[in-house]
Model the fold of this input.
Amino acid sequence: MLRKLALVLLFPVLLVAQESTQPVQLTIETIAGSDLNGRGPESVQWSPDGSKVTYVQRDENGEHGELWAVDAVTGAKSVLVSASKMASLAPPDNKIGNEREREWRRRYGVAAYHWSPDSKYLLFDSSGQFWLYNFETGTAIETTSSPDPSSDPKFSPDGKNLAFLRKHDIWVRGIPEGAERQLTRVGDNEDLLNGEVDWVYAEELDVRSNYFWSPDGKQIAFLQMNEKPVPAYPITSYNGTHAKADDQKYPNPGDSNPEVRVGVVEAGSGHVRWINLPETTDAYIPRFGWIKPGVLWVQVLNRAQNKLVLYFVDSKNGQSRSVLTETSDVWVGEREEMYWFQSGDRFLLPSWRDGHTHLYLYSYDKDKPLSADAKLEGQLTKGEFEVSRVNYVDEKAGVVYFTANADDKIQWQVYSVKLDGSDMNRVSKEEGTHNAIFGLKADSFVDSYSSTMKPPTFALCHDSGPCTPFWESKDISALHLTPPQRLRLKAADGTTILYAHLFMPLGTMDTSARFPVIMNPYGGPAVQDVRDAWGGRGFLFDEYLARKGFAVLVIDNRGMGGRSRAFQAVVKGRFGKTELADQLAALDQVLKRVPMLDPKKIGWFGVSYGGYMTLYAMTHSDRISAGVSIAPVTDWHLYDSIYTERYLGLPKDNEQGYKDSSPTNDAENLHGALIIAHGTSDDNVHLINTVQMTQALIRAGKQLRIMLYPAQTHGVTGPAPTSNLFHLIEDHFTRELKTPAPPPDGGQAQ
Done:
C-alpha cells in the first residue's frame, strides 16, 4: 500500500488510466502528416514605420498562402496580399525542386518578403526572381532581368536602391525601376564568393548575410570567401538513369578553411578597397558591420576559437585598430550577437567571462572611434542564468530588453534591465518559452510563446495592457496528451543537477508490470532538449511511444546548452564519455525511483549528435538492448572543421581525443540490436559516416541493419519518409524490447 501510494504521488500520470474518457487515437501517420496544432505564421515582421505586423499564413499543406497584417494599435487583422497574388510572388518551398535548396531555406529561415524602408513596397522572392509590390497600385513589377537566380536582397537605407547577390557577386539596381549594375566581379573563378555565405559559416557561425549597406547608402561592406583551398565532398543524387554528384565545399577538422577578407565597394563606381586586418590568416570573420559612414567594426576569431578581437576600421583608408579582445580557456561565444546603439557611442557584448552568458556595456569615442580602446562601462546582468539574445534597446529610457532563463532553467522569458544594471524585471507573462520581436518602440512587441503542453501562440503585446493573440494553434485537447514528468536528477559527478522529462506508459495501475525504457537524448553542445516549450512531432512521437507501453526518458546531460560555462565545457577535448556517464547515472536514479521500469530492457535512439550518442552508448556500455541511430557522426574526423575544432581542437593536437570520441574505433564492442538510418543527400553529416561505421562493424563481425532515405538531407522530412522512420523505430523497439526471450532449454515460454 505504501509502495503504491508513493508511486502515485511521484507519477500522477498513472491515474490517467482511471479516467472514463479514452484518449483520441494518436497515430504515426497523423504525427508525420500535417501539423496537428496547425501551420504557424511565416516571416513575421514589423513594417519599418511600426504601423503593422505582417506574416505569411499558408494552408495545412503549405501550398496556398496569404500575407496578413495586424494593426499595431487596434490589433485588427486584414489580408494585405491575396492568395492569388502570393501564388506567383512567393510560391511555397515545396515548389523548389532541389531538396538541398528547400532544406537550406527552411533551416536558415529565408524570408519570403522584405519591406522597403519607407513601408511603401514589399519585395518578394519568387524562386530567385524578385518582384516589387506597390501597395498603392496593388501591382508588382519584376526587378531582376536575368534567368540566373538572385538572393539576399537588401534595400539601401534611403530605399532608392536594391542590392542583391547573383552568381557569387553583388549587384545593385534602382528602385522602383532602374538598370542593374554589377559591383563585384569574380569572373570565371567559381571559388570566390562576394557577400555570399558558404555552408560552414551558415551552419556553425550562424552567419546569415555577408554584405551590408553603409548608413549613407554610398558604400557596401562585404566579406569575400575564397573556397579554393577547401576540399569538396560529392553529394550524390540517385534519381534518373545516371547518378549525379554535386560537389559541396566542406572542410573537415584540420583541412583548409575558406580564406576570408573584408572589402568595401563604392555603390556608384564599383571601386573596391580591401581592408587589411592583422590575425586574419587561418581565422574566421563571423560578424562585421557599420558604426557610421566611413567606419566599420569587424570581429576576428582565431582558429582555436578561444580569442575574439574586435576591430574598428576606417573604410576610406583601410586603417584599423583593435579595441577589444575577448579570450576564454575553452571557447568564446562566437554565436552571440553584439548590439550597436543608434547613438553611435556604445555597444552591448554578450560574454560568459563570469561563468554565465551576460551582457556587458562598452563605450567609445563617437567622433574618433579609432583613437582608443573600447571602455567597459559595466555588467548589466548578473546571476546563475543565461542570456540568449538582446531583443531591443530603448536608448531614450535607458532600458535593455533581453531573453534569459533567470526564473527557471528550462523556461526562456523576456526581461528588462536598466543600463546601469538595476531594476531587472520580467516582461513576458505566461509560463513557458517566449521570443519577442519589437517594433519601433519598446511599448509594443510580437510575442511568440509555447509551453510543454501548449502549442505556439503569436500575440501583439503592449506595455499598457494584455497581449492580444493574432494566431493560435488548433485546440489539441481531444488528443488527451499527458505531460511528461519533469525530474531533477544528479550527474555522474554526484552534485550537478540535470533536468529530464519522463513519459510514462498509460493504461495500467498494475505495479507488477515492467516497462521497457527508451532513452532519447540529443546530448551535444549548444542544444537544450528539456525545455518548457512545445516539442512538435518529436514530443508527439514520445507520447505515442508511451501509449504503446514504453517509458521514454529525455535527459539533458552536462555538455549541452542553456547552462553555465562549467556545465558546457566538460566536452572540451573529448566527446561521449561525460555525456554517457551522466545519462546512465540519471537512468539509474529513475530506475530506483520507479520499480515499474525494466532495467534489462533499455533502448536508445537519436538524430545527429543524438545518433552519435546512440552509437557511443552501444559501443561503450552493455546495458543497451536496442538502438536506432539517425544521421550520426561516427568519426569526428569526418565532421566540419568549425564545430569539431571548437570542442576537440585540431586533430594533430588531440589525436587521442578524436580516437576515443569516435565509435568506429570501438565497433568490436557493439552491444544490442542496431539500426542506422541516413539520408543519401545529407549535406551536414555526410553519408560517409554511416558507410565507414558499417565497414567497421562488418570487420568486427557485428550485425546491423541500414535504412537509407533517398534524396533526404540531414532531417528526414515529409509525411511519407517521416512515417516510415517512426514505424521503423517503433517496430525495432517492439521486436527487441517487448518480445519475450526464449527459455534457455528451448521449451515453451510460460
Summary: The chain has 13 helices and 44 strands.
